[in-house]
Structures are given as structure tokens and as C-alpha cells.
Amino acid sequence: MSEELLKIEDLSVSADEKSILRGVDLAVGRGETHVILGPNGAGKSTLGNAIMGSPAYTVTGGRITFLGGDLLEKAVNERARDGIFMSFQNPLEVPGLSLTNFIRSAVEMRTGQKVRFFPFRKELLRAMELLDMDPSYADRDLNVGFSGGEKKKAEILQLLMLKPSLAILDETDSGLDVDAVRTVSRGVREFQKDRESALIIITHNAGILSSLHVDRVHILVDGRIVAEGDGSLVDEISRNGFAAYENKA
Amino acid sequence: MKINTLPAPTWRWLRMNQGETDFDAGKGGRLLIAERRGDWTPCARDFSAVKGSAGEAFAALAANMEEKPLALSASGEALLRLCWRAEEGAALDRVRIAAEPGSRVTAVMDIAAPEGCSGEAGLETLLLADEGAELTLVQIFRVGAEGRSVVSVGGECAKDARIRLIQLVLDGRETDLGAHVLLRGEGSDFTARIGYRANRDHRIDMNYVVPHEGKRTTCDIQAAGVLEDTARKIFRGTIDFRRGSAGAVGAETEDVLLMNDGTVNQTIPLILCAEEDVSGTHGATIGRLSEELVYYMASRGMPVELIYRQMALSRLNAVAAQIPDEATRVAVAEYLNGADFDTDGTTV
Ligand SMILES: Nc1ncnc2c1ncn2[C@@H]1O[C@H](COP(=O)(O)OP(=O)(O)OP(=O)(O)O)[C@@H](O)[C@H]1O
Ligand SMILES: [Mg+2]
User: What ipTM score was computed for the predicted complex, to two decimals?
Assistant: First the structure.
């Protein structure tokens, strides 16, 4: 049994007075990779956002504990500083702020220390190479004019540079071509090498999972986790879809 | 005296038709030539018909200076870098620049004062862009939190000439700025990129006036800035399509970020039409950062105050990136990133 990192108990979340999550339980230990599958609108992104602390969602019941502390009491930036990271489905564009400066500030916030420029730059360029990103993107404005795939890669780049203890990847593979999926999963594999860190992968495609080690799979339907199992559950869903689980919600 | 007067006073904005300043100066002599590249010669041309943005009272004050204006004309590719170094007290200097036909001329003015200096910088700059010339004027305002600048810019474009203006207000207790550019020649163009920030009880008063006289003349004015604490800003932008300017196109856009509720943000967009076949547009994004953007940046560990500071900086950086002169660009970047504008007004 690995050391517990994240513990979600009986979590209920709503947005705009609409109840979305209805009593979710989830426990993630250090070094583990969890996958969340579920039909559109089931509440997967909502779960990620509730962990990250999005102001668009209201937690109406239950608890989230991270590293033994009450996570729900913390502001978004404090959660990030404590080691939570979420890759966004739609990363935002910031004209006038370069990708390098953005990541540098983020790393400084995470470590609480001033970043030394040259070692940082070297590490950044190495990570960009791993992700098949053109080095010139380092000096471009954050996400401005990036293609959908390039934005997703920039998210994984942040993951590699920030080294969070818990990373939530929300459909990081959607909208990517075959080669880009392979590149992104190479990046995720690199992150997995750190046995202290955990992953929650939200996806609709088995593709990104094929080359990753998966510990646990959770099926989320209509705001509830209706089934759990090991990696073989991914193949079962790929073959049969969610029909068998939909009446269990 | 009255300053930054609108060319057509309107009843809608009663007390905003012009600004008011007690700026007064009896001497000049603060201007230094820091760098001169290319072919510059003394200029004896008549600039008396060129109107400046600050208006008549300021022009009269400038005309009374004992010191002669610095008047130069340039051909080919040329660059002039001027520094205005403030000391205590007020001073007013005059600059005249003519860009000869087909030339590519850049003039940079760095209006600077040591932090804590309450000096007052007055500067009147008149420009003539001859046929096919491209004249770029860059003005950087960094006079510290106590300094004041009152700046008037006037220009005229001949056929196919272009005047580009970049103004960056990095600090200052009071800043009056603007430009009055007459697009006389067919196909001439005026482009302005303005970036500013103001905090505490500081005040920025801007006046841009572009009379279009030539056919198919174009102008594009973009101002982006940040207001904090109880800072006040007024932006007047007048695009004046006069008879004969058929086919002319003019646009003015503003993007203002308000850091808190105490700021005063005023805008007077004015589009005057005496010609039918013209197109003038005004757009404004005024507001706060979107909740989604703040969430995204917070999820990368940044506290809200830092996010606002970063977004403020990014607006100024975007304007600074357009400065054609490398040395100035670097100086501005250092000023922006080093002497950072903290939310409580102290330098970090
Ligand atoms: N901010 C919001 N305001 C109102 N309703 C919301 C909000 N966010 C999500 N919802 C609703 O909650 C439900 C779950 O949304 P969520 O985005 O979590 O689904 P998902 O499982 O991620 O779906 P997908 O696979 O399509 O990404 C949907 O019905 C959605 O319309
Ligand atoms: Mg989703």
C-alpha cells in the first residue's frame, strides 16, 4: 500500500445551482497513475476543477484531503504551490507574457526560490526537445497563435518543469494527431519516472494509455463513480462503451 | 493653462473637452543627443504651420523659449536618440525633425528623471514626413513617481509618407501627451501604439488628433494601459475625415485594465466626417481580467496580485516590443522588470 497523497470522500459539487458530482470517493497514493473514464457530461472536468479549486464550481458536500491537510480551505495558487497541477482542456492566451517567463514565474512560485536563468533555460530547452517543440516557442507569447496541439504540448512542458506531486491531465490527448499523441505520452512517461508523483488522467482515448503504466481505472457516470478496476477496464470500455454502466449511476 | 483641447468641443463631455495644467517654464536646455546615426543636417524649414497636440497655450509658451529648437533633417536611413534628463524645476525644450523624401528615420526620446525628483519635463516635437518617408518617433516617459511631463507632438505627412508613434508612460505624477498628425498627402498613414500605467493618485491626459485630408489616408491608434489605486486617465482620440479624404480609413482602439474600483477611466472617441466614402471605427475593451484567465494563472501558483502585475506588465511589454531601437528596447525592459511597479507603489 503506497503512501496516500489525495483522498476524496463523498464529494458533491455544483455549478450554477446545478448539481454535477454526487458523492465521489477517490484515493490516490504517491507514484500511482489513475484513469478516469466516462461519457460526455459525466463530470470528469468538474472533478479536476474541484481539486484544483476553480471558482466556477461550488463544493456542496464531502472532503478533499491532500498530503493530510484540508485542501478545500486553500486558494488555487496555494494548491499549486503545494504540488497540484492540472493541464487545461483549453489553455488561455496571454499576449505580452512569454512562455519562458510564464514558466519561470510558475517554477519560482512552486519552489519559493529565485530561478537561476541559465540552468533553467537549459532544462526548458531539453524538455521542449523531448516534446518536439521548436525552441523559438520559448520566446513566443504564451499560447498566442499556438495551434491546438501546440497548446497541449505547452501544458505538458509546464508539467515537466513544475514537477508537481499530483498532476491532473484533462483530455490532454484530444485533438492531437497520432504523432503528437505519441510525443505527449513520451512527456507523460518522463513525468511518471518520478516515483513520488501521481497522475490522474481524464481521457476518451485508449491511445495515450497504451504506452503508460496504469494502476487504477474509475468509471464516472452522471456524477458518480460506478465501477473501478485495473488497467484492463480501459480495454473493456474501448470494446463495449459505457452502456453497461449507465443504469448504475 | 488649457491643454490637450479637443478639435471639436462637445457638450456631452462638458469638462473633458480639454485638460488643465499649471505647467510653466522659462527655460530649456535639458536635451542631450545620446546617439546620431546616418545623415543628419541642420534644418531651416518652416514648422510654424504644424500644430501640436497640446494646443495653443502650450505652443505659445514654447514659442517664448530663449533657446532655439533643435532642428534637424535626415535622409536615407537615420536614427537619433535624445535624452531629456530632468532636474528639479521645470524646463521646456523644442525639437523639429524633417524626414526627407523616401527616408527611414527613427527618433527616440527618453524622458527620464531619478526617482524622487519632482522635475517637470516640457517637450514640443514637430515633425515633417516628406513624400514616401517613414518617420518613427518613440517617446519613453520614466520620470519617477514625483515627476511630471507635458509633451506636445505635431506632424504632417506628404504623399505616401508615414509617421509611426510609440509612446510608453512608465510612471509620473502627471503626464500630458498626445499627437496631432495631419495626413495631408494622398496615401499617407499614421500609426500610434501607446502603452501606459498609472497608480496612486497619478493622472494621465492624452489627446490624439488625426485630420485626414488626402485621399486613401489611413490611421490606426492603439492605446493599452493599466490603472491602479485612484489613478485617473483620460483618452481623447479624434479622427477627422475632412473634405477630399475619400477612401480614408481610421481606427482607434483602447484596452484598459482596471486593477481596482477607485480608478477613473475616461475616454472620448470622436469621429468627424465631412466626406462620405470613409470608414472610422472605435473599439474599447475596458475591464478586469477574466475569471478564467486568473484561474489559469493561479493554477500555476501565482497569487492574484502577481497575476494582475504580470498582466499589467504584459500590456506594456507588448508596446515596448515594437520599439525599433534595440538599446531603447533593452533599457525599457530593464526598467519594467527591474524597477517593478509594486501594487503598493514601492519599487521591488
Ligand atoms: N461552469 C459550469 N456551469 C454550469 N454547468 C456546468 C459547468 N461546468 C460543467 N457544467 C455541466 O456539468 C456537467 C458535467 O460537465 P463536465 O465538463 O465536468 O463533463 P465532462 O465529463 O468533463 O465531459 P466531457 O467528456 O464532454 O469533457 C455538464 O452537464 C456540464 O454542462
Ligand atoms: Mg471534460
Answer: 0.95
